[in-house]
C-alpha cells in the first residue's frame, strides 16, 4: 500500500535503526519488549547486515549512545519561535531541544515560523517578501548556546517586509511564514549564505506540542518541514511530544519537553555513531506523555497507524443551503494497523517511524491499460 511506501524508508535504514533505537532508549528508559520491525522491513533484514552491525556497535556496553559534539544542526518547527505561552504551545519545545543539544556540544541554529503554524502541512508562500529576523530566546534560554560557534542563534520567518512584528492589543502580528517556508529559506539561502556553506549536518524539526502520529502526519507542519528538508537532500528527524485532552482543556498536564529533548539528543548521537546520518535519513519520533513518576518505555520501530487519539474535525449540523460547523475534538476510530505508532504511544513506548517522502503508490489493476487506451 502507498501508506507503507511512505512510512517505511529504505529497508537497510529501518533495520539498522532497530538497534540504534535500543541504544538510545536504554539510557534512562524503562525496560520493555524488544522493538519490532514492520513486516516489510523484517522480511528483508538479511539485506541490511552491514547497517545492522553498525547500529549494534552503537549499543555496546561501553557506550550505548554516540556524541552530538560538533554536529551542525538546524532546528525548525511549526509551533513558532515565540516561546511565551504557559502551556508550551508556541515554541517551548524548540528551546528545550536547543538547550539539550547545545549542552551536549552541538552547534545549533533555529529557523522557525514567526507565529504558530500547527496543522499547516506543506503550505508554502509563492510570492511577496519573506523576512528572516533574529529573535532573543525567552527567559531562561538566553545563554544556552553561548559557547557554540554560531551562538545558537534563533530566527523567525514572516511573510512580510522587515521588520516582523509581534501582536499587540491594537495590532496583529506579521503574517507568518510556514514551516516549509522556514526549511526552504534556511536550507537553500540563509544558512549556506551566512553560516555553513555546505549546510547543516542534520535538520531536526520540533519538539512539537502534541503527537504527530497516524494520518495526522499528512497535515503536520512539523513533519512537512522534515519532508521538505529531506527532499532538499538533508537528513532529518522530527520530534513530537504527546498531548492530552487535559492540557487542551487548560487544566495542566501539558508537554514538558525535558525528557523528550534528552532522548532526542541520545538518539541523534546513536544515529551518528551508526553512520546513519545520510540523505536517506528521515525519522518521525513521538515521545509519550508521562505522568509524575512514569518513565517512557523502550523505543519501537513502527508504521503509521490510522487512528490518532487526538482527533479534530467538524461537529454539529447545517441545512442544505450551508452553514457553520464547529471545529474541535471528535471521536477517533479504533486502531487496527499492525505495529502502529499510535499503539506504541498508547503503551508509553517511544515511537519511531522512518519516512521516505515518496507518495508513489502501486497502480490499481487495469489502470495502466485504461490510460493506454485513452491515447
From TrEMBL:
Keywords: Cytoplasm, Hydrolase, Metal-binding, Nucleotide-binding, Signal. Residues 73-293 form the Survival protein SurE-like phosphatase/nucleotidase domain. Its EC number is 3.1.3.5. Residues 1-23 form the signal peptide. Coiled coil: none annotated. InterPro entries: SurE, SurE-like_Pase/nucleotidase, SurE-like_sf. It catalyses: a ribonucleoside 5'-phosphate + H2O = a ribonucleoside + phosphate. One of its GO terms (molecular function) is nucleotide binding. It comes from the Bacteria. Belongs to the SurE nucleotidase family. This is 5'-nucleotidase. It comes from Nostocoides japonicum T1-X7.
Amino acid at each position: 500500500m502507498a501508506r507503507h511506501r511512505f512510512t517505511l524508508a529504505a529497508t537497510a535504514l529501518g533495520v539498522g535503526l532497530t538497534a540504534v533505537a535500543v541504544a538510545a532508549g536504554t539510557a534512562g528508559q524503562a525496560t520493555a519488549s524488544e522493538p519490532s520491525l514492520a513486516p516489510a522491513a523484517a522480511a528483508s533484514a538479511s539485506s541490511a547486515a552491514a547497517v545492522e552491525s553498525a547500529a549494534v556497535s552503537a549499543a555496546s556496553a561501553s557506550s550505548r549512545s554516540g556524541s552530538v559534539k560538533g554536529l551542525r544542526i538546524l532546528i525548525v518547527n511549526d509551533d513558532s519561535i515565540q516561546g511565551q505561552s504557559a502551556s508550551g504551545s508556541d515554541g517551548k519545545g524548540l528551546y528545550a531541544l536547543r538547550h539539550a543539544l547545545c549542552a551536549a556540544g552541538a552547534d545549533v541554529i533555529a529557523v522557525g515560523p514567526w507565529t504558530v503554524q500547527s496543522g499547516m502541512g506543506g503550505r508554502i508562500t509563492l510570492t511577496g517578501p519573506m523576512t528572516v529576523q533574529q529573535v532573543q530566546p525567552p527567559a531562561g534560554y538566553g545563554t544556552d548556546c553561548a559557547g557554540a560557534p554560531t551562538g545558537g542563534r534563533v530566527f523567525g520567518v514572516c511573510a512580510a517586509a522587515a521588520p516582523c512584528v509581534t501582536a499587540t492589543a491594537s495590532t496583529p502580528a506579521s503574517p507568518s511564514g510556514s514551516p516549509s517556508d522556514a526549511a526552504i529559506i534556511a536550507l537553500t539561502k540563509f544558512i549556506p549564505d551566512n553560516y555553513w556553506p555546505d549546510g547543516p549536518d542534520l535538520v531536526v524539526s520540533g519538539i512539537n506540542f502534541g503527537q504527530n502520529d497516524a494520518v495526522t502526519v499528512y497535515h503536520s507542519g512539523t513533519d512537512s518541514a522534515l519532508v521538505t528538508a529531506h527532499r532538499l537532500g538533508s537528513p532529518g528527524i522530527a520530534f513530537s511530544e504527546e498531548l492530552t485532552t487535559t492540557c487542551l482543556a487548560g487544566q495542566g498536564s501539558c508537554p514538558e519537553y525535558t525528557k523528550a529533548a534528552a532522548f532526542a539528543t541520545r538518539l541523534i548521537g546513536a544515529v551518528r555513531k551508526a553512520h546513519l546520518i545520510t540523505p536517506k535519513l528521515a525519522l518521525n519520533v513521538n515521545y509519550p506523555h508521562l505522568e509524575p513518576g512514569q518513565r517512557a518505555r523502550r523505543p519501537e520501530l513502527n508504521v503509521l497507524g490510522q487512528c490518532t487519539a487526538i482527533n479534530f474535525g467538524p461537529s454539529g449540523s447545517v441545512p442544505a443551503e450551508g452553514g457553520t460547523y464547529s471545529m474541535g475534538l471528535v471521536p477517533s476510530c479504533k486502531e487496527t494497523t499492525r505495529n502502529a505508532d499510535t499503539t506504541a504511544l498508547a503503551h508509553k513506548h517511544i515511537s519511531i517511524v522512518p519516512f521516505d517522502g515518496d507518495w508513489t503508490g502501486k497502480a490499481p489493476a487495469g489502470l495502466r491499460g485504461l490510460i493506454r487506451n485513452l491515447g
